[in-house]
# Entry
Amino acid sequence: MKSADSVHRAATPAVAVVDGTGSVIGWTRAAEELTGYLAADIFGRPIGTLLPPGGERPGAYLPRTGMVEVRRRDGEVVIVRADAAPLTLGDDGQRGESWLVSAIPVAIDLSSDTSALLESLIGSFPVALAIWDRDLRCVWFNEAAEQLQDGYPYYRIGRSLTEVIPGIDNEGVRDAMREVLADGRPMIDREAHWSYEGEERVLSISLLPLAGVDGRPLGVCSVALDFSNSKARDHLDLLREAGVRLGSTLDVMSTAQELAELAIPVLADFVTVDLPEAVLPGTEPLRRLATPEAGAPVFRRAGVASVHDGAPESLWERGEAVFVPPRSPFMEVLHSRRSHFEPVLDTSPGTWLDLDPDRARIITATGMHSLIVVPLEARGDVLGVAVFARSTNPAPFSRDDLLVAEELVTRAALSLDNARQYTRERLTALALQRDLLPQNLCGSGAVEVASRYLPSDAHEGVGGDWYDVIHLPGGRIALVVGDVTGHGINAAATMGRLRTAVRALAYLDLTPDELLTHLDQLMTEDALTPEAMGATCLYAVYDPSTGRCTMATAGHPPPAIVSPSGEVTFPSLPAGTPIGVGLGTFQSHDLDLSPGTLLALYTDGLIETRQADLDAGMARLADALAHAASRSATLDRVCATVIDSIVGDAPAEDDIALLMARIQP
# Structure
């Protein structure tokens, strides 16, 4: 580490004692060396004397803790780390108003150990660190910056970026640094080019503002990464792309495949991602081999990529069980949680490959010669292993390649864990919802019914949509459709409670508005769910003896009614508040339905999208119903045609429930 001579002499903290008025009453030798003021010159003077011009303002003499500028006697400004503590004076132990203030130049705080740590974190990229004061003078730099001095002579203590050096174009960096000082916002990853000894150098420069304890800018820390080496640039581009692509979906298999494809061909010629069964919910249990000596199916292949078409290096397709010997690098990595690094793959007799002849054959046939196996670890769990191999690329893996592979896998592991947790919760919610929805809907001699339920493909997971058909005394039939706000297991559980409550209230022979009022009170007063989720609901009762259908809505879209002639209308129902609000403002509405009339009850997932509002969605539904009802003979076919017409192959943004009823002659 390089710094000014004064900084080296000030390795011992400079200490001063300041009284309650801000006057200096104590001064050490180290303080003299740091500031240039002898004790006799500073005693009795305000501590604000050491502040740079503009820093002497009311309260400026009060002791501070943090980064502060100190003005030396010769006018030079030094950035220090100041610490202040109240000082107890006198034998009585009473704390006076004096303060003990110590200051250490920031160049000593930024030790060579810190610089080495930063460089190790960056990995294989040379990191040049430097600190510049407000006058753009270099006050500190590390060894990597020193190595760039011949081509970039501004890395010298005391040299300012404002100096003009023939052959060095410094205007861009100088202006950027002034901008960072002015607005206090960092500038990240700015590319800079310059030539040195006939070679074009490419640097990524980031500028970070350094603020004092009072918030005023003290200087700028520059971080320059030399990417003149094409391999280093490729590695950086790989990690940048990983930050964009990994985790773009919440699907475990897709994320594993993204990891495999990212590393080809920049890092490896062949990559596999193998995950245990527990990380892949919904897969069939792995079967055991008849001969334990040959290994066991520990993983499933979730991702595979190769520079060769068809990935001839892979013994298994995606989704298939992967067999590994007990004594192999894969099991070693799984248990130790440490990477296996084998720059020159040992295929001689007596290695683990003796227990895995199929792999040995593939390795020989494809010319694999270098191997890295990295554990996929996230939040304390090992999710599987990622395998990187080289065959076409003759260069063996280096330590830098290992660091990049581990960084890539670390990022992928977090995305995989997020996808795993999402998939597990979604499958649980789906199973719960399917169990709670009616399994076998049946109509009556007067009403034919059919239904469809389509779970959401969105990241939020399954929701709380439901439908039901309830047979009432006197041949009447109740039709119900509802939608619980929110998604996931809680929404599905709330849906089950509401469906049960609706059935219990229906058997009390309440009118639709009375039933919704009681349902609203139950959800509000009895707290059907601790999360206090709301819901919308449409409840309709058809009486075949009168041909009348009475319905009420609680914040739910109206049903679509298709007349025997094919005309589609949406009745104007009295508005009702959603369930759970506690207002109970519901009204019933009567409709006379002739034989052959078709009713479609649905949730808003069928008609509402991010691109279209409810009115546009209802228009699409009306058009789909008009065409489907005219062409389809069965009601079940009408349901399927309407869903296909509106949703098609596009992923559903929200759960969709559709319940249809046709009045029989």
Observations:
- DSSP finds 16 helices and 26 strands in the chain.
- The domain at 235-426 is CATH 3.30.450.40 (Beta-Lactamase).
